[in-house]
């Protein structure tokens, strides 16, 4: 949903409002997702959780903006790299 929303907002900013500054829309998406991600980080006395979730939300939004802007190969490359990073770090430890 995060990636699709970012893609839709980017496409809309580029096509529906061509006279507007589309970079501001991308920046707003990333800032908004940063606040959403910050809400997933939880600190207890023993540990901090949610950092991977927050980083993944931010990455998915970035891939959505990249896709919406029409940089498909870059978006595919980023998706593969993000998947590999998660696969090697998180999935191998038994957490998914």
Radius of gyration over all CA atoms, rounded: 15 Å
Taking the sheet with the most strands, its summary is:
2 strands, antiparallel
Give me the strand/helix succession: HHEEHH
**Helical stretch tally:** 4
Counting copies of identical and different chains, the oligomeric state is single chain
Tally of DSSP β-strands: 2
Helix content: 55-70%
Percent of residues in β-strands? under 5%
Question: Which regions contain 5 or more consecutive residues with pLDDT less than 50?
Answer: none
Q: Choose one word for the global shape.
A: flat
Write up what this structure looks like.
With 96 residues, the protein is mainly alpha-helical. The chain has one domain (2-93). Helices cover 70% and strands 4% of the residues. The protein has 4 helices and 2 strands, in the order ααββαα. The protein has helices at residues 2-15, 22-38, 51-68, 72-89; strands at residues 42-43, 48-49. It has a two-stranded antiparallel sheet with strand order 1-2. It starts with a helix and ends in a 7-residue tail after the last helix.
Short note summarizing the structure:
The protein is mainly alpha-helical. 70% of the residues lie in helices and 4% in strands.
List keywords for this structure.
96 residues; mainly alpha; 4 helices; flat
Structural topology:
Elements: H1 2-15, H2 22-38, E1 42-43, E2 48-49, H3 51-68, H4 72-89
Antiparallel strand pairs: 1-2
Helix pairs in contact: 1-2, 1-3, 2-3, 3-4
